[in-house]
Amino acid sequence: MSKAGPPPTVFHILERNIGRRMVAILDPSYGFEGTLAAVTLEPPGIWLSDAEIVTLRSTIAQPVPQVVSREHRSEVFINLSSVQRIEVLHES
């Protein structure tokens, strides 16, 4: 039998994705997209470099939120207590 340790925490999962592009959704219509640069424990948060503020919009006909505008920011700290969802973007 293999010894399985405790399941990974959110911080472990985020640390595995350092250097990858991701979107942090703070509100159903607002979020940040950028490259994950660092994960902090105190305060719990993430640093995004090459960040952009993204505005999302969904309609009855298109219920999946789509990015409708972007505004460039250089670096952003996001407190994880205000994040609703984090999505890792895959390179195409």
Walk me through what this model shows.
The chain has 92 residues and is mainly β. It is built from one helix and six strands; from the N terminus they run H-E-E-E-E-E-E. The chain has one helix spanning 10-16, and strands at 21-27, 30-40, 45-57, 66-72, 75-79, 85-88. Strands 1, 2, 3, 4, 5 and 6 form a six-stranded antiparallel sheet that branches. A hairpin with an 8-residue loop joins strand 3 and strand 4. The longest helix is centred in the N-terminal third of the chain and has 7 residues, at 10-16. It starts with 9 loop residues before the first helix and ends with a strand.
List the total number of helices: 1
Q: Give the % helix.
A: under 10%
Total beta strand runs:
6
Low-confidence stretches: none
Structural class: mainly beta
Mean pLDDT: 89
